[in-house]
Amino acid sequence: MAQSSQGERLVFLSTEPAGPQDRRLAFAVLLISALIFVAIAPFAKTPLGQAWAFIPAYQSALIINDIVTAVLLYGQFAILRSRGLAILASAYVFSALMAAAHALSFPGLFAQSGLLGAGPQTTAWLYFLWHGGFPLLVIAYALAKEPVRPMRVGVGIAISVGGAVLGAAVLLLITTVGHDFLPVIMSGNRDASTKVIVATASWLLCLLALPFLWRRQPRTVLDLWLMVVVCAWLFDIALASVLNAGRFDLGFYAGRVYGLLAASFVLMVLLLENNWLYAELAKLNESERQKSNALIVANKDLEAFSYSVSHDLRAPLRAMNGYAGILMSDYADKLDDEGRRMLERMRVNSERMGQLIDDLLTFSRLGRKPVATEPVDLDRLVGEILEDLKTDLGARKVNFTVGKLGAVNADPPLLKQVFVNLLSNAVKFTRNKTEAVVEVDCQIDANGAKIYFVKDNGAGFDMRFIDKLFGVFQRLHSTDDFEGTGVGLAIVRRVIERHGGCVWAESTLGQGAAFYLTLEPIARPVKTPSPVEPKGAAPTGEMRTA
User: Cα dist. 86→148, 164, 211 in Å?
Assistant: First the structure.
């Protein structure tokens, strides 16, 4: 997994499209392999000594490479849940099992006729079934479609490994129990005349895998190196089974070297990817450490700023408001109407500035205050808030409808602040309605998440400006129409997000607004009904439960 060029996200070799540099490197490896093949091919039948130690050493290295490659691919599968990766990993498990069976059945290596109940033809048939089965699984990887619902990691790996083990076991039984029914392709250590037909079939299966890999879109770095692997297998089969004369000649040894290289290519790029990942994680860790230190310093500065705001700015505001009050009470008769109006505006604006400072301090402290959750009875909480609001209504008529809200785990003071802001806004923005209606209730979405809402039939807002609604100092109405500091909804969003939930709103200008919130994560805000005047409103100034 490597950092993308934009530095915004991490990508895998199995998902990152192959770039020009990747293609040049793969082509260079393939070209060198092809040149060596062309140089060796004319001498493939040259007999060499029987180096018995070569076979277990080669097969052991092959098995280790295949198993490590499979483990790395399963690691990517655990993150990406890709069906194709599970199939490809099973191909490498299958290859490791077939390599082990091939080595154990090799005549004269561990026993005169080989182990596992092998016959004279078992080892050769295992080789061709192995080299034919692997490209078929590569084709299955290339054709794999991702399921709508990703399978669980444990289940996917179990099916993948189980399928590889079952396939290898069936082929081993065919070549041992069914040995006598198979055509003869080896005569001792020399090739029988029919061997070239079976070898060509395996070779053609490898060749067939190439166009399937080429047609994958987007063609990833992993696809590119799989094509190199398949080409190396083509050279392997050609040297070890088509162009040579039998075991222990130059083609026999050279073909197996190509087989080992084929097993190593994907492993090498995966190991390089893991090394890159480690380096990126180290960089990210250092970056996060530096950010953490900077955040500590910033928090200290913010604390100092908050102290300054609380003490140094409030004092002159209190003085201005106090002196304006003295002037109004003691010298009002000496001032004309304009003078009294200006003094009153001074008092109103100083009070508004004080409220703005309070709101800003509240907002800044929300990011530092730890969230201490406990069970909260929302029915009681909302009831207390509405009782307080009703005392300030005066002669206004507001119909409150409250549904059954139940209990929720939250920080009680913070959650109360959320509903105070939302309900205060609902009362404020319905002041111009003859019959104001405010509804508080909850609903369950398709995924079982509980969504609370506050609806009103007030002024509403233009949905074109929804992105500004929860920002600090973002007001969608004039202060001459509706008072406020433009911080309340920003506080609501900060509190809800600190609880791990989300908040959103819907409105029709002039017909009311609806604010929805959830205290649990959801994929995205669900589509909810537009705010409409609730049915069956309670009598004026009363609250009833639905």
Answer: 16, 11, 21
Q: Which amino acid is at 366?
A: L
The token pair at 116 is 């596992």
> Per the domain annotation, does 53 fall within a domain?
yes
Q: In whole angstroms, what separates CA 308 from the centre of its chain?
A: 42
DSSP state string for 67-125: HHHHHHHHHHHHHH--HHHHHHHHHHHHHHHHHHHHHHH-TTTSSTT-STT--TTHHHH
Cβ contact 107:179 at 8 Å: no
Closest CA to 515 of 436, 421, 431, 401: 421
Instruction: Confirm whether 209 is domain-assigned.
Output: yes
Query: What range defines the domain where residue 495 resides?
Result: 371-545
Burial group, residue 339, by CB count within 10 angstroms (0-12, 13-18, 19+): middle
Question: Of 239, 264, 289, which residue sits at a domain end?
Answer: 264
- Predicted confidence band of residue 526 (pLDDT cuts 50, 70, 90): very low
Do 259 and 377 belong to one domain?
no
Cα→Cα distances 49→46, 54, 247, 453, Å: 10, 11, 10, 84
State the pLDDT at residue 359. 59
Beta strands 512-518 and 543-545, pairing class:
unpaired
Tokens coding 111? 């026993």
Is residue 323 included in any domain, yes or no? no
The strand pair at 543-545 and 398-402 is best described as parallel
What total of structural domains would you count in the chain?
2
Measured in whole angstroms, the distance separating CA 395 from the mean position of its chain's CA atoms is: 54
- State the DSSP H helix or E strand holding residue 517, giving kind and residue range, or none if neither: strand 512-518
The answer to whether residue 35 sits within a structural domain is yes
438 phi/psi in degrees, rounded to 5: -130, 130
CATH number at residue 454: 3.30.565.10
Same domain flag for 407 and 538: yes
Q: What is the pLDDT of residues 312-364, one digit of tens each?
A: 666 677 777 777 778 777 777 777 888 878 877 777 777 766 666 665 666 56
CB 494 within 8 A of CB 363: yes
How far, in Å, are 255, 456, 460, 522 from residue 531 at the CA level? 74, 7, 9, 21
> How many Å apart are CA 68 and CA 89, to the nearest integer?
10
Q: Mark which of 264, 292, 325 sits at the end of a domain.
A: 264
